[in-house]
Write a structure and sequence with these properties.
The protein contains 13 helices and 14 strands. By secondary structure, it is an alpha+beta fold. The chain has three domains: about 1-160, BirA Bifunctional Protein, domain 2; about 170-265 and about 360-394, no CATH class; about 265-355, no CATH class. The longest helix is centred in the middle third of the chain and has 16 residues, at about 135-150. The protein is globular.
Length: about 400
Amino acid sequence: MVAKVSLGGNLYGALAYNQDKIDRGKGQILETNRVFVPADGRFSVGECMRDFERTMPSQVTTTRGIVHISLNPYPEDRLTDEQLTDIGREYIERMGFGDQPWMLFKHEDIDREHLHIVTTRVRGDGSLISDKNNYERSRKITDDLERKYGLHPKGERQGEAWQLAPVDASAGDLKRQVGNVVKHLAEAYRFHSLPGYRALLSLYNVGVEKVEGDNKGNRYAGLVYSALDAEGNRVGQPLKSSLFGKKYGIVHLEGRMQEVKAKGFPTSIRTNVAATLAGSTTGGEFRMQLRERGIDLILRYGNGDRLFGATFIDHNTRTVLNGSALGKDFAANALLEGSPAFPPQSHENRRSVQTSAMNTQSPPLSEILQPTIQPKPTTPRLQIKKKQSRGRSI
């Protein structure tokens, strides 16, 4: 069972996300604490927010007071609602949120049932529940829960992200589908470059481009997301990053990428890739064995089908790295020389390795992005964030 713990300041967004699942018949409330929900489970985001806010002093100024957690069992772990509730409740209590207001949801929008938890770190006296060593504490709890309930160990499968549903262009509602993928992957994974981020998104039929330009003397830059078909071609209208929130725009993501570079990457990635490469005789075998270890290899081809880049996506540590960052033995040229069986650009690789193809029925990306003044939020929002400066955003 894989857990993802996200901290932020948008209580409304966390509750609305779960309400959307319920409204579409893909979720339900299993249990709450200090939050009133009608017997039919059709909760009101506004009323639930008021229950949360009653417990939190208004003078608190943290931007990381809201906790949104997902708990993801292995797809073949068949659990009753009672068992899921027990698992969620025990996880909440052991993470230190048992006395806080919290809501426990079950989602059924992908190929296995999983849990979402919304709670707060802010205590009634204004102090904060520590988030130090969240990852290690959470992993120990999920390890214990796996043994207690006889669940498949998280190491047997690549984990939560591989169960995320890719965008299906034929299903419609592309904005919602692309948003679900972007919001999950951008927050869950560590990447240090835009090509790495693009490679990660391509696994789920999403493309991303950086667009820069000048509009009447005002310089602008931003990201545009697109749904992709099986050939890697853009489908439907491009979507500005601002449709999903500032966290998924170029300014925030470039800041995160710098932080990732500064922190480095887990040495286990290089160890796993090196061991796999040493035990492989062909490029196809190398990729297959990497996948068995929970690592995707995305190859980038240029003109003449020449391999010029390789990106490794480790779903175990949720890290995306260019081959050259792992070492010269893992750069594209070294892989090509060491494993001549790497295929030229093919149907399998094309989607993942190139920038999104331009669909002639859609307007140029430069016309999609224009500087706009960010409007004031009209939806209820927990007022615990520091005052932000007003400026241009895309």
